Amino acid sequence: MRNKAVGIDVERDWLDERGHIKVDEHLRVVGRRDIFAIGDVNDVSEAKLSPTAVAQGEATAHNIRAYLGHGKHGHLPRPYKPAPVRVFSVPFGPDGGTTLLPALGRDVLVLGNRATSALKSRHLGIPIMEKLLGRPRP
User: Fold this and answer.
1) Within 13 Å of residue 138, how many CA atoms lie on the same side as its CB?
2) Which of these, 129, 100, 134, 137, lies nearest to 116 by C-alpha position?
3) Which of 10, 65, 109, 121 could form a disulfide with 71 if both were Cys (CB 3.0 to 4.6 A apart)?
4) What pLDDT, on a 0 to 100 scale, did the predictor assign at position 36?
5) Under a CB-based contact definition with an 8 Å cutoff, are residues 36 and 67 in contact?
6) What pLDDT sits at residue 93?
7) Cα(12)–Cα(17) distance, integer angstroms
8) Alpha-carbon distance 22 to 44, whole Å?
């Protein structure tokens, strides 16, 4: 698929063999300083889960501010460091669910209803998102 306005062949220039968008260490599309790709669409080798997308979003927000010259810490972009495993919770209502927790020396710990309820089920992560977006709780 060729974009004549920009002069690129998207499939050849941007996509890897699996159809993911190729990005550099700052999550910028390879060859472009001003286009970023986060979440499931990029070729970063890590679990494609919501905590990963949040971490990539935070890094990309910093890098966009740096690109625009509005960064708190100067104009330097920050490399994104992929995590092999992140905490991941799947709630099943307010009192149940499963949480996967990375552990030293082991692959992962699986936590049940009580831990998942304490971590996420009662508030579904809304306070975390409000903090990320800079919105105070009502």
Assistant:
1) 1
2) 100
3) 65
4) 95
5) no
6) 80
7) 9
8) 8
Closest CA to 38 of 13, 18, 63, 17: 63
Tokens 């699986």 — which residue? 110
Tokens of 116: 């998942």
Q: Which amino acid is at 120?
A: K
Q: In Å, how far are 22, 40, 119, 121 from 63, measured between CA atoms?
A: 17, 19, 29, 32
Contact 17, 36 (CB under 8 A): no
Q: What is the pLDDT of residue 121?
A: 59
Which tokens is 13 given? 């220039």
Contact 35, 28 (CB under 8 A): yes
Question: In whole angstroms, what separates CA 77 from the centre of its chain?
Answer: 16
Contacts of 107 (CB under 8 A, 6+ apart): 85
Block means of pLDDT (10 residues each) for the chain, 138 residues, are 57 86 95 92 87 89 86 77 78 84 74 83 69 71
Structure tokens at 80: 């994104």
What tokens appear for 49 in the block?
């889960």
Two tokens, residue 128: 């975390």
pLDDT (0 to 100) of residue 71: 60
The pair of structure tokens assigned to 60 is 């990309």
